[in-house]
Amino acid sequence: MVEGLRMNQTAVNLGAGGFVSYFEDGGAAVILDSSMENNQEFSEEPAYVEQGVGSFIADQFFSDPPEGTEGIPLPLNASTQDDIRSSGRTNSENRDVYYPEGQTFFETLADDYNYPTEELSDGVYGIDPVDGATRHQRPRRDMPTPQELEDVRAHMLGSAITARGYGPETSRKVGNVNEMFFGNRAHATMDKRNNAVGINLFKKAGLDASTPQLTEMVDKRIFEQLNVILGRKPEEQGPPTDKPRWSENFRSPADGPDLYFPRDNSGYFLPDH
């Protein structure tokens, strides 16, 4: 019994879930049936070890990557951040670390979602989300561009990997600090939302999640969001106006990752600074 509080004799039976006993001061305690104690939905989160923002910053300049990242250093510097960002491309240098087998993110985007491809610098065909002609091409005008999708994925996967190595709260704070100095409010809102989705995916995956497992979960969540957008009715694919690139075309569902850069009313990207 909690000291200083007395419980009424009455307890409400929740069936298989147990009982709720009410305190005289209006509070309540849930007493779970033994069969529910191991239910993941009711279990507490593990005690994450938070390294802190200072540790993250120090590692960027002075330390080797923490152990346990399976060959992928945490985002210690611009180079390793670029590695995470580019890992979904067809010609990614470290694709085997993120995708030991099967297609990369952009290969799935081309094959399953009909995003256009082009011949890349090494002679293979794929999507170039940075400099290629395909970076802004998509199968339908209200779909996000490859450039946007790579940014979304980079924030989600980067935050998940950072959460694994430094703790989810540290990952959140690192992302917030970055947005404070390097983005405007509209872009910061988008990036923080995607960072949060990535951190939550890490929590679902667990402390022992591998890099390929986190990658798979991130990619899957983005594709789920794309499926919702693909399911829009024809009248939902454009605004009630004769301007087909009006900003209302480019709104993500309320839940999950935000797949669209902020746009003006002509449909063009807003500058991120």
Q: Main beta sheet, described?
A: 3 strands, antiparallel
- Strand line-up in the sheet with most strands: 1-2-3
Mean pLDDT: 77
Helix content: 25-40%
Terminal Cα span: 55 Å
> Could you name the ranges where pLDDT drops below 50 across 5 or more consecutive residues?
1-43
Structural class: mainly alpha
Total number of domains: 2
Give, in order, the helices and strands: EEEHHHHEEHHHH
Query: How many beta-strand runs?
Result: 5
Strand portion, in percent? 5-15%
From the alpha-carbon coordinates, what is the Rg to the nearest angstrom? 23 Å
- Shape type: globular
**Tally of individual helices:** 8
Could you characterize the architecture of this molecule?
By secondary structure, the protein is mainly alpha-helical. The protein has 8 helices and 5 strands; from the N terminus they run βββααααββαααα. A hairpin with a 4-residue loop joins strand 2 and strand 3. Helix 2 packs across helix 5 and helix 5 packs antiparallel against helix 8. A 3-stranded antiparallel sheet has the order 1-2-3, with no helix packed on it. The radius of gyration is 23 Å and the shape is globular. It has 2 domains: 43 residues, no CATH class; 197 residues, no CATH class.
